[in-house]
Amino acid sequence: MAKLQRWLVTLAALGGALGVGAGALGAHALALAPGSAAAHRYDTAVIYLLLHAGVVVASGATRAVLQPAWLVSNTLMLLGMLGFSGGIIASTYLALEHPLPVIPAGGTAFIMGWLVAAGAVFRGAPKGGAG
After folding, report:
1. For residues 110 and 67, which has the higher predicted lDDT (pLDDT)?
2. Which domain holds residue 96?
3. Whole-angstrom distance, CA of residue 39 vs CA of residue 27
4. Is the residue at 111 inside a domain?
5. Is residue 98 in a domain?
6. Do 4 and 67 form a contact (C-beta atoms < 8 A)?
7. Tens digit of each residue's pLDDT (9 = 90 or more) over 71-117
8. Cα distances (Å, whole numbers) of residue 6 to 9, 13, 57, 95
């Protein structure tokens, strides 16, 4: 496994652990009213964090991830995990009145990560490439 790939997968796995921890804290320690907008935002952030952590870890198990497009896609998904999910979780824990400005940038990173992945799949592996 290449060094960058190993870092991406390690960070994603740590993001998955953080997602489980954040979900447990949200369910047991945060005083969010069930069904409230804040609870919905928090749940969405945790789900997106766990989903994208799984995607990056799973793609890291393939040789195709060594292609530059997959490295870019996974990096964008990690930035989305940090910006979108991390921003919402931090905003909730800190009880901020206004959301952090990094949240929309993180959402954009998620979208771009998926678009880059779609492009990589559509183009296919290069001749003699990994996958």
Report:
1. 110
2. 3-123
3. 9
4. yes
5. yes
6. no
7. 899 999 999 999 999 999 999 888 888 889 999 999 999 999 999 99
8. 5, 10, 10, 35
